[in-house]
Amino acid sequence: MVLRIRLARFGNKHVPFYNIVVAQARSARGAKPLEVIGTYNPLPKRPTNLYDENVNVRPFKEIALDRSRAKYWLGVGAQPSDPVWKLMSMAGLVEQKPATWNKA
Amino acid sequence: MAPRIQSRRVSSTLLPYLGPSLSTSIPSLPSLPSVFSTFSRSFSATAPSQSKLRREMFEWLDGPGSELKHHKPNRTNYVSQYRKMIGKEYRDLKQYPFPENPTFISQSILSLPLQNEIYKRVVEEKQTVREVSVTFGVDMRRIAAVVRLVELEKRQRSQGKPLALPYARAIHEMVPTTGIARNPDQQKMHESINDLPMHPLTGAQMFYPVPESRSFTRVDAGRVFSGAPAQEHKIAEKWSSPHHVAERVPKRPHLIELVGKGDNARQVLQPADARIPHPQLIALERDLAKYPDEPLLVEQRHQDRLRDQAEAEQKQREAAQARRERKITSVSPQESRFDYRIKEVAFTTQTTGRDGRAPWAPGRRYGVPSDDRKRGMRKVPTRVEA
Amino acid sequence: MRNRASNSLSRGKIRQSWSKYNLFNLHRYRVPFNHNRSFFQQKWTAKATARAYHGEQVRESQWKRMFSHRIRSVIPMNPLHLAADDGSRASAGRGSGLEGDAKQPQITPYTQMAFAPLERRLDVAIFRAMFASSARQARQFVIHGAVTVNGQKMRHPSYLLNPGDLFQVDPERVMFATGAPKNKYERRESRQLKQKDAAEETVNPEAEEKVGKVEKADAKESSRDNLQALVVQAKSILSRGKNQLPAKRKQELRGFQKAVRRVLSRSDRSTILTDSLEAQFSELTLLLKTKQAEPKDSKAEKPVPRPSEVEENEAVPGEVEEEPFASDKLSEAFQQAAQGEEVDSSGLTKHETFALKRALAQMHDNPLDSTKPYATPWQPREYMSAFAFIPRYLEVNQNICAAVYLRHPVARPGLAEVPPPLATRSAPRPTAGT
User: Fold this and answer.
1) Contacts of C12 (CB under 8 A, 6+ apart)
2) Measured between CA atoms, how close is B269 to chain C, in angstroms?
């Protein structure tokens, strides 16, 4: 069986929120995973516009990640899904996928 | 067409602008009907009871209440002043907005020049908040708020956003204000700056026998209230004076002793000297008593203490900031419109609980129903990040 | 939620509102006579009175949930006393303290603070900061999206403010809430204006191209028209308010009419100065400054009064004679200034120059604008001053209609920061000195 690191959707309608989970590839999205190793909030937050220094700050998205557990699961052969790959590459845990590779 | 000061715009405004008191309103506006005309019929002798009250109301509004209709610049104008109260002078009553509540008085607000002066001193002259607070007798939190608000005002003015200037002028005429005195020595203090918040532990009455020969100070009282054991004799001799505590604790708050174990550990209640916002003023008073003939030395020592305190606070702030930043790394990819803030968390037995689904664990939980549609569950946010 | 906020006179409840009905209720309210009433009856009235004022817009279940046993209070400490005594004197002797005749400390009014948690609500805080004329109106502002907390729109009136939160209300709404309403003539005027505008837009959409050429002539024409309309208006005010107007005001109006006629007669010769309002304004103030500098040397002894001092003149009868308000010269100079002509301020006293300058500044801030939903120029609404106070736990900047919630309200010896309209009788009235 393949182990995957993937996103599990929570939250409400129009308010998504994801747990980053390690699960069997064939298990259901909402099923209990082997382990939760992080969260991802895809709704961008904006810094308050009250101060001048915030004028040019970009909106940001929040990721919480347990690096040591992520490294361990990658080490034993868990395969990140594409969105998780993107997040993990930003955290510096995996190489960035080439853009053409994504499209193919 | 570019906007002009047009005659239409100008001339009718002349009336309020050039009066004796410039922001009182025009009395020529059509006012309420002076006598409320009751719905009366010739054949009915009794008026409905409701209209009696209304009639009384309009009689009062036209009579004694007419004083309240328009504000009187630079003095308060509350109902209490127009009620017959025996033995009370106008001086006593002018502060009370509610005639039946003597414990609430209308306190003064900062005048606009004072607000600008505070901003100038903090932002342009780089004085510390602590200094400005002592100079004008304004709470340090209020000073921080004034700086924020004046800065926001400047920003909005530069952006050309609408402002409520006549409104501000009117409010500052209605409400008592604290202004700047021409002579700095006569500056009126705005509020008490050394407020000691009442600690819940001190609410209970305690009986604690002490030998008559022993000196029982505020430090000891704090230990008794928080249930800490009495200090050893040697340490007590050295550190039991509240003045020592006041000098030590604000600079190194992490050194405060703890009582209790594990989750129940609490800090020992510190004496008032260490918990008031301006402990350095106590040391200043002690110096003044100690060296009455050497004002320069006293001033020098005071400035040294202020500088030390400012440095310690700055160090604490930087350490806290560094601690926050160590946890969070920000990534801004070129191709994305967004930044990504990656926070380091730990999913261990401690953070998620033994079964992995403790309520305080990071992430959404499995195996528990989502309660957000239940009755009484509050979806109102509890805080807004600034 | 049923709206019980209507100020009924028969019930006589006091609400968080600035209406005149509420003012009358506040005026005639007396603590009920409780000697021959049962405990239940007393409790019922007490709750009804408190509920009507504190959080009348809050549902009962929510209201009940809000209270806390923790009542905050502070004790102001004097550094002098703390420096002189380390606390051992209070426990010396037989434990009752050496200072036997110490002053009896004032009672801290804890009972008044029961409703402190409600003051954390956003709608109540907006009302307390005097941005709305009632808590209900504040609630409406929040729901309609006119309020931001820390720069983000907040649509929950029940949001509980945290210390340090900055909330801001749209200044237009605040001006509407606190300003005098339009009378029916002004309402009709603005309605007609609106209809006229709508009609013009539909009739000649292509007129805009021609505007550039005709503009200058038009401007003069319209200003003439406006002036004439104003004279008519002044006349109508004179005739309408024969009984209401004080004699001085009538004189002023007549002087004003004269001034306008004079301006009308020579307005062909006058040059309208600059295009932008701002430039005109700054030029005028500059002009006044230079004019004022000249006569300053001759009578420099008298200090220039601050605006607040001048406004106090009404209360001081001696000074009113010194400064005859709105003399013909002054109003004429004002007229000139407003028309953008050379201001002849040499004939004015210093007081008058000062008043003129201030009047110009105020005219600049507070223009006549019939598109606004309140009477312009803006004036505070009637009976507002009777309710005007700002508690210390808020720091308010009225210019931008923003306020910071500094801390939770606290009680201190003799004073409570939460304003219930009535207090228990046990609390003694503080002396004037405190």
Assistant:
1) C25, C28, C29
2) 15
